[in-house]
Amino acid sequence: MTGRLGSLAVAGAALVAFADLRVGGVGLAAGVAEGNIRGRVEIRSAIVDTDARPGVADLGMRSASQARERRDAVVYIETAPQAAFEGGGADHVAMNQQNETFVPHILAVRVGTIVDFPNNDTIYHNVFSLSKTKRFDLGRYAKGRSKSIRFDEPGVVRVFCDIHSDMSAFIVVFAHRFFAVTDGQGRYRIEHVPPGTYTVAAWYEGAVRQSRAVTIPEDGGTVDVDFAVP
């Protein structure tokens, strides 16, 4: 699937996948083996950031910001296995505003996670989202200040700055724990997966780009699964 998010909307297939994760499950029996899914997501082409929110002063003009490559992907299990919903998602993470950029560009979190948005620049920022999963507007605040939002529904949240039209980021919210964001080399690892056959999806820049069937044997073990995004 190669569709991209619009500036404020989530691709339909991605919404369906995340909605499916709401269904609950039961815990693993004692002594049941677990496995790991690992691999690499290869981004074969540079993605130009062409969908930044336009500002009034930019209408009819090309953005002065330089094109930036987006290399991070999220790999996750589409249908949550048993024990997927055990434990809370009460994590506390940060998406920094630094050099007029959101860092990291992609956050993947569990439902219940609180995300801080510290301003590390010497200028004001105004973080907001109009995404259906989570709508918010933090207002303008200066360097050294931080504001927070709790993400309590699964889905994709597109984040912007109301002052700087070229700033954008994604927060991908899951109702389970079987997901991972790729590292600088494109590698990922999803741990403690119960035996079974699953559909594993590679999500990149607003859409599910590829999916593969993966089987964790009854005796556990590590399964390698690579993806190539054109």
Question: What's the layout of helices and strands?
Answer:
Blueprint: H1 12-20, E1 35-43, E2 74-77, E3 92-94, E4 96-98, E5 101-103, E6 106-110, E7 113-118, E8 125-130, E9 135-141, E10 146-151, E11 155-161, E12 168-174, E13 179-181, E14 187-193, E15 196-204, E16 207-216, E17 221-224, E18 227-229
Parallel strand pairs: 1-17, 1-18, 3-7, 6-12
Antiparallel strand pairs: 1-14, 2-13, 2-15, 4-5, 7-10, 8-9, 8-11, 11-12, 15-16
Biggest sheet, in brief? 5 strands, mixed
Poorly predicted parts = 1-28, 54-69
- The total domain count is 1
State the end-to-end distance. Answer: 11 Å
Strand order within the widest sheet? 6-12-11-8-9
Provide structural commentary.
The chain is mostly beta strands. The protein has a single domain, classed as Cupredoxins -  blue copper proteins (Immunoglobulin-like, Sandwich). It has one helix spanning 12-20, and strands at residues 35-43, 74-77, 92-94, 96-98, 101-103, 106-110, 113-118, 125-130, 135-141, 146-151, 155-161, 168-174, 179-181, 187-193, 196-204, 207-216, 221-224, 227-229. The N and C termini lie close together (11 Å).
Could you provide a short overview of the structure?
The chain has one helix at 12-20, and strands at 35-43, 74-77, 92-94, 96-98, 101-103, 106-110, 113-118, 125-130, 135-141, 146-151, 155-161, 168-174, 179-181, 187-193, 196-204, 207-216, 221-224, 227-229. With 230 residues, it is mainly beta. The protein has one domain (12-54, 70-229): Sandwich (Immunoglobulin-like).
